[in-house]
Task: structure prediction
Amino acid sequence: MNPTAEEFSVVVRNLERRFGAFTAVNRVSFEVRKGEIFGFLGPNGAGKSTTIRMLCGLLAPTSGEGAVAGFDLNTEAEKIKQNIGYMSQRFSLYEDLTVEENINFYSGIYRIPAERKGERKEWVLRMADLSDHRNTKTAFLSGGWKQRLALGCAVLHEPPILFLDEPTSGVDPISRRNFWELIYELAGKGVTVFVTTHYMDEAEYCDRLGLIYRGELVALGTPEELKTRLMKEEVLEIQAERPQEAIGLLENLPGVKGAALFGKGIHAIVDRAEEFVPVLRAALETGGFAVGRVEKIVPTLEDVFVSLVEERDRQEKPVSEVRR
Result:
Protein backbone atom coordinates (compact mmCIF):
# COMPACT_ATOMS: atom_id res chain seq x y z
CA MET A 1 0.00 0.00 0.00
CA ASN A 2 1.43 3.39 -1.00
CA PRO A 3 -0.02 5.67 1.74
CA THR A 4 2.41 5.92 4.66
CA ALA A 5 1.84 5.54 8.40
CA GLU A 6 3.34 9.02 8.85
CA GLU A 7 0.43 10.61 6.97
CA PHE A 8 -2.48 8.24 7.59
CA SER A 9 -3.80 6.57 10.73
CA VAL A 10 -5.96 4.12 8.79
CA VAL A 11 -5.49 2.67 5.31
CA VAL A 12 -7.65 -0.10 3.84
CA ARG A 13 -7.68 -1.64 0.38
CA ASN A 14 -10.44 -3.91 -0.93
CA LEU A 15 -11.48 -4.88 2.60
CA GLU A 16 -14.14 -7.57 2.59
CA ARG A 17 -16.01 -9.56 5.21
CA ARG A 18 -18.38 -12.39 4.43
CA PHE A 19 -20.57 -14.42 6.76
CA GLY A 20 -21.36 -17.55 4.78
CA ALA A 21 -22.99 -16.44 1.55
CA PHE A 22 -23.73 -12.95 2.92
CA THR A 23 -21.24 -10.16 2.17
CA ALA A 24 -21.41 -7.61 4.99
CA VAL A 25 -18.55 -5.43 3.71
CA ASN A 26 -17.71 -5.51 0.01
CA ARG A 27 -14.22 -4.46 -1.15
CA VAL A 28 -14.07 -1.18 0.76
CA SER A 29 -11.07 1.14 0.26
CA PHE A 30 -10.26 4.46 1.99
CA GLU A 31 -7.72 6.31 4.14
CA VAL A 32 -8.07 8.32 7.34
CA ARG A 33 -5.58 11.12 7.85
CA LYS A 34 -3.86 11.63 11.17
CA GLY A 35 -5.71 14.01 13.47
CA GLU A 36 -8.95 14.16 11.49
CA ILE A 37 -12.50 13.28 12.49
CA PHE A 38 -13.65 10.73 9.92
CA GLY A 39 -17.33 9.88 9.84
CA PHE A 40 -18.59 6.54 8.55
CA LEU A 41 -22.19 7.21 7.64
CA GLY A 42 -24.95 4.82 6.67
CA PRO A 43 -28.27 3.25 7.68
CA ASN A 44 -28.53 0.42 10.18
CA GLY A 45 -27.22 -2.80 8.68
CA ALA A 46 -25.06 -1.05 6.08
CA GLY A 47 -21.80 -2.58 7.33
CA LYS A 48 -20.54 0.18 9.63
CA SER A 49 -20.08 -1.94 12.76
CA THR A 50 -18.53 -4.84 10.84
CA THR A 51 -15.99 -2.45 9.31
CA ILE A 52 -15.08 -0.85 12.61
CA ARG A 53 -14.67 -4.27 14.27
CA MET A 54 -12.21 -5.28 11.54
CA LEU A 55 -10.28 -2.03 11.95
CA CYS A 56 -10.06 -2.59 15.71
CA GLY A 57 -8.63 -6.08 15.31
CA LEU A 58 -11.78 -7.69 16.72
CA LEU A 59 -12.85 -9.42 13.50
CA ALA A 60 -10.60 -10.89 10.82
CA PRO A 61 -11.23 -9.73 7.24
CA THR A 62 -12.24 -12.37 4.71
CA SER A 63 -9.99 -10.66 2.17
CA GLY A 64 -8.27 -7.37 1.48
CA GLU A 65 -5.49 -5.55 3.30
CA GLY A 66 -5.12 -2.63 5.63
CA ALA A 67 -3.16 -0.95 8.38
CA VAL A 68 -4.18 0.86 11.56
CA ALA A 69 -1.58 2.94 13.43
CA GLY A 70 0.97 1.38 11.07
CA PHE A 71 0.10 -2.20 12.05
CA ASP A 72 -1.18 -4.81 9.60
CA LEU A 73 -4.85 -5.75 9.92
CA ASN A 74 -4.25 -9.36 8.97
CA THR A 75 -1.15 -10.15 11.04
CA GLU A 76 -0.88 -7.60 13.88
CA ALA A 77 -4.35 -7.42 15.42
CA GLU A 78 -3.01 -7.50 18.99
CA LYS A 79 -0.69 -4.55 18.35
CA ILE A 80 -3.61 -2.63 16.85
CA LYS A 81 -5.66 -3.23 20.01
CA GLN A 82 -2.85 -1.81 22.13
CA ASN A 83 -2.73 1.42 20.11
CA ILE A 84 -6.40 2.34 19.81
CA GLY A 85 -9.35 3.33 21.94
CA TYR A 86 -12.68 1.66 21.19
CA MET A 87 -16.18 2.55 22.33
CA SER A 88 -18.94 0.21 21.19
CA GLN A 89 -22.53 1.21 20.51
CA ARG A 90 -23.63 -0.81 23.53
CA PHE A 91 -22.68 0.55 26.95
CA SER A 92 -19.74 -1.63 27.97
CA LEU A 93 -18.89 -0.52 31.51
CA TYR A 94 -19.92 -2.22 34.74
CA GLU A 95 -23.10 -0.71 36.14
CA ASP A 96 -22.63 -2.24 39.59
CA LEU A 97 -19.33 -0.35 39.99
CA THR A 98 -18.97 3.33 40.81
CA VAL A 99 -17.59 5.80 38.29
CA GLU A 100 -14.19 5.73 40.00
CA GLU A 101 -14.15 1.94 40.24
CA ASN A 102 -14.80 1.62 36.51
CA ILE A 103 -11.90 3.96 35.76
CA ASN A 104 -9.64 2.00 38.12
CA PHE A 105 -10.65 -1.25 36.45
CA TYR A 106 -9.81 0.03 32.97
CA SER A 107 -6.51 1.44 34.24
CA GLY A 108 -5.58 -2.15 35.02
CA ILE A 109 -6.86 -3.45 31.68
CA TYR A 110 -4.71 -0.91 29.82
CA ARG A 111 -1.73 -1.53 32.14
CA ILE A 112 -1.27 2.12 32.97
CA PRO A 113 1.85 2.52 35.15
CA ALA A 114 1.04 2.83 38.86
CA GLU A 115 2.64 6.27 39.10
CA ARG A 116 0.29 7.60 36.38
CA LYS A 117 -3.00 5.96 37.37
CA GLY A 118 -4.07 8.76 39.71
CA GLU A 119 -3.22 11.47 37.21
CA ARG A 120 -5.09 9.74 34.37
CA LYS A 121 -8.12 9.05 36.55
CA GLU A 122 -8.44 12.69 37.55
CA TRP A 123 -8.05 13.71 33.91
CA VAL A 124 -10.93 11.44 32.87
CA LEU A 125 -13.13 12.74 35.69
CA ARG A 126 -12.46 16.34 34.65
CA MET A 127 -12.82 15.65 30.93
CA ALA A 128 -16.15 13.87 31.42
CA ASP A 129 -17.26 16.41 34.06
CA LEU A 130 -17.83 13.57 36.52
CA SER A 131 -15.63 14.70 39.42
CA ASP A 132 -18.69 15.23 41.63
CA HIS A 133 -20.02 11.78 40.72
CA ARG A 134 -16.91 9.68 41.29
CA ASN A 135 -18.65 7.63 44.00
CA THR A 136 -21.95 7.27 42.14
CA LYS A 137 -22.94 3.81 40.97
CA THR A 138 -22.72 3.82 37.18
CA ALA A 139 -26.22 2.33 36.95
CA PHE A 140 -27.63 5.58 38.35
CA LEU A 141 -26.06 7.81 35.67
CA SER A 142 -28.16 9.14 32.79
CA GLY A 143 -27.50 7.86 29.27
CA GLY A 144 -25.48 10.95 28.40
CA TRP A 145 -23.26 10.68 31.48
CA LYS A 146 -22.70 6.98 30.86
CA GLN A 147 -21.47 7.76 27.36
CA ARG A 148 -19.09 10.41 28.68
CA LEU A 149 -17.68 7.90 31.16
CA ALA A 150 -17.33 5.26 28.44
CA LEU A 151 -15.48 7.77 26.25
CA GLY A 152 -13.18 8.66 29.14
CA CYS A 153 -12.33 5.01 29.75
CA ALA A 154 -11.70 4.50 26.01
CA VAL A 155 -8.99 7.20 26.01
CA LEU A 156 -7.62 6.50 29.49
CA HIS A 157 -4.39 5.09 28.00
CA GLU A 158 -3.98 8.05 25.58
CA PRO A 159 -4.36 6.14 22.30
CA PRO A 160 -3.50 7.98 19.06
CA ILE A 161 -6.63 6.62 17.35
CA LEU A 162 -10.16 6.47 18.74
CA PHE A 163 -12.93 4.33 17.25
CA LEU A 164 -16.50 5.23 18.20
CA ASP A 165 -19.31 2.94 17.05
CA GLU A 166 -22.67 4.76 17.11
CA PRO A 167 -21.56 6.55 20.32
CA THR A 168 -24.68 8.72 20.76
CA SER A 169 -27.35 6.18 19.87
CA GLY A 170 -30.27 6.57 22.27
CA VAL A 171 -28.89 9.76 23.83
CA ASP A 172 -30.89 13.01 24.02
CA PRO A 173 -29.94 15.92 21.67
CA ILE A 174 -28.25 18.04 24.36
CA SER A 175 -26.13 15.12 25.54
CA ARG A 176 -25.25 14.36 21.92
CA ARG A 177 -24.01 17.92 21.42
CA ASN A 178 -22.00 17.82 24.65
CA PHE A 179 -20.49 14.49 23.62
CA TRP A 180 -19.34 15.97 20.31
CA GLU A 181 -17.67 18.83 22.16
CA LEU A 182 -15.55 16.19 23.89
CA ILE A 183 -14.71 14.61 20.53
CA TYR A 184 -13.58 18.00 19.20
CA GLU A 185 -11.45 18.48 22.31
CA LEU A 186 -9.71 15.15 21.73
CA ALA A 187 -9.21 15.82 18.01
CA GLY A 188 -7.74 19.21 18.89
CA LYS A 189 -5.05 17.35 20.83
CA GLY A 190 -4.11 15.31 17.77
CA VAL A 191 -6.22 12.20 18.32
CA THR A 192 -7.57 10.62 15.12
CA VAL A 193 -11.29 9.91 15.52
CA PHE A 194 -13.17 7.34 13.43
CA VAL A 195 -16.87 7.52 14.22
CA THR A 196 -19.80 5.57 12.78
CA THR A 197 -23.24 7.17 12.82
CA HIS A 198 -26.60 7.17 11.10
CA TYR A 199 -27.39 10.70 12.32
CA MET A 200 -27.04 13.08 9.39
CA ASP A 201 -26.61 16.14 11.63
CA GLU A 202 -23.66 14.49 13.38
CA ALA A 203 -22.03 13.83 10.03
CA GLU A 204 -21.76 17.62 9.55
CA TYR A 205 -19.29 17.71 12.46
CA CYS A 206 -16.78 15.47 10.65
CA ASP A 207 -13.79 16.60 8.60
CA ARG A 208 -14.47 13.93 5.98
CA LEU A 209 -17.12 11.29 5.41
CA GLY A 210 -17.41 7.85 3.93
CA LEU A 211 -20.96 6.87 2.94
CA ILE A 212 -21.63 3.13 3.09
CA TYR A 213 -24.69 1.33 1.77
CA ARG A 214 -25.29 -2.42 1.61
CA GLY A 215 -21.66 -3.03 2.44
CA GLU A 216 -20.29 -0.82 -0.33
CA LEU A 217 -18.64 2.58 -0.09
CA VAL A 218 -20.72 4.89 -2.29
CA ALA A 219 -18.96 8.23 -1.66
CA LEU A 220 -15.99 9.93 0.02
CA GLY A 221 -15.45 13.62 0.69
CA THR A 222 -15.93 16.52 3.08
CA PRO A 223 -19.54 17.35 4.03
CA GLU A 224 -19.38 20.49 1.89
CA GLU A 225 -17.95 18.65 -1.10
CA LEU A 226 -20.62 15.98 -0.93
CA LYS A 227 -23.40 18.56 -0.77
CA THR A 228 -22.17 20.91 -3.48
CA ARG A 229 -20.21 18.82 -5.96
CA LEU A 230 -21.25 15.20 -5.80
CA MET A 231 -25.02 15.37 -6.17
CA LYS A 232 -26.10 15.78 -9.80
CA GLU A 233 -29.77 16.44 -9.08
CA GLU A 234 -31.35 19.47 -7.40
CA VAL A 235 -33.61 19.66 -4.36
CA LEU A 236 -36.96 21.37 -3.86
CA GLU A 237 -38.24 22.11 -0.38
CA ILE A 238 -42.04 21.95 -0.23
CA GLN A 239 -44.47 23.09 2.43
CA ALA A 240 -47.76 21.26 1.93
CA GLU A 241 -50.59 20.04 4.12
CA ARG A 242 -50.66 16.36 5.05
CA PRO A 243 -46.99 15.93 4.02
CA GLN A 244 -46.91 12.18 4.62
CA GLU A 245 -49.77 11.69 2.16
CA ALA A 246 -48.28 14.20 -0.28
CA ILE A 247 -45.06 12.17 -0.45
CA GLY A 248 -47.02 9.25 -1.88
CA LEU A 249 -48.21 11.45 -4.74
CA LEU A 250 -44.76 12.95 -5.35
CA GLU A 251 -42.98 9.60 -5.46
CA ASN A 252 -45.19 8.54 -8.38
CA LEU A 253 -44.83 11.83 -10.25
CA PRO A 254 -42.66 11.55 -13.42
CA GLY A 255 -39.46 13.53 -12.92
CA VAL A 256 -39.28 13.10 -9.13
CA LYS A 257 -36.33 10.87 -8.30
CA GLY A 258 -36.95 10.80 -4.57
CA ALA A 259 -39.03 12.43 -1.85
CA ALA A 260 -38.67 12.38 1.93
CA LEU A 261 -39.99 14.14 5.01
CA PHE A 262 -37.63 16.78 6.37
CA GLY A 263 -38.88 18.46 9.53
CA LYS A 264 -42.39 19.67 8.77
CA GLY A 265 -41.76 19.83 5.03
CA ILE A 266 -40.79 17.64 2.10
CA HIS A 267 -37.59 17.44 0.10
CA ALA A 268 -38.05 16.31 -3.51
CA ILE A 269 -35.08 15.37 -5.70
CA VAL A 270 -35.45 16.45 -9.35
CA ASP A 271 -33.22 17.23 -12.34
CA ARG A 272 -34.12 20.90 -12.96
CA ALA A 273 -35.70 22.37 -9.87
CA GLU A 274 -36.80 25.79 -11.14
CA GLU A 275 -38.52 24.32 -14.20
CA PHE A 276 -40.24 21.71 -12.07
CA VAL A 277 -41.78 24.07 -9.48
CA PRO A 278 -45.03 24.82 -11.41
CA VAL A 279 -45.41 21.16 -12.41
CA LEU A 280 -45.05 19.98 -8.85
CA ARG A 281 -47.34 22.66 -7.42
CA ALA A 282 -50.05 21.87 -9.98
CA ALA A 283 -49.83 18.14 -9.29
CA LEU A 284 -50.21 18.62 -5.55
CA GLU A 285 -53.09 21.07 -5.86
CA THR A 286 -54.87 18.78 -8.34
CA GLY A 287 -54.43 15.99 -5.81
CA GLY A 288 -56.20 18.04 -3.16
CA PHE A 289 -53.21 19.33 -1.19
CA ALA A 290 -52.89 22.97 -0.16
CA VAL A 291 -49.37 24.05 -1.11
CA GLY A 292 -47.30 26.76 0.55
CA ARG A 293 -43.68 27.52 -0.20
CA VAL A 294 -41.86 25.59 -2.96
CA GLU A 295 -38.24 26.59 -3.54
CA LYS A 296 -34.87 25.26 -4.59
CA ILE A 297 -32.42 24.72 -1.72
CA VAL A 298 -28.83 23.60 -1.21
CA PRO A 299 -28.95 19.82 -0.68
CA THR A 300 -28.47 18.46 2.83
CA LEU A 301 -26.32 15.43 3.52
CA GLU A 302 -29.53 13.45 3.86
CA ASP A 303 -30.57 14.55 0.36
CA VAL A 304 -27.18 13.49 -0.99
CA PHE A 305 -27.39 10.13 0.72
CA VAL A 306 -30.94 9.46 -0.53
CA SER A 307 -29.87 10.38 -4.07
CA LEU A 308 -26.82 8.12 -3.98
CA VAL A 309 -28.74 5.22 -2.49
CA GLU A 310 -31.51 5.42 -5.07
CA GLU A 311 -28.98 5.67 -7.87
CA ARG A 312 -27.14 2.68 -6.41
CA ASP A 313 -30.37 0.72 -6.35
CA ARG A 314 -30.99 1.55 -10.00
CA GLN A 315 -27.62 0.41 -11.23
CA GLU A 316 -24.28 -0.66 -9.82
CA LYS A 317 -21.53 1.93 -10.13
CA PRO A 318 -17.97 2.25 -8.77
CA VAL A 319 -17.38 4.47 -5.75
CA SER A 320 -17.71 8.20 -6.40
CA GLU A 321 -14.92 10.13 -4.75
CA VAL A 322 -14.81 13.90 -4.62
CA ARG A 323 -11.34 15.11 -5.47
CA ARG A 324 -9.96 18.41 -4.29
Summary: The radius of gyration is 22 Å. The chain has two domains: 8-222, 232-298.
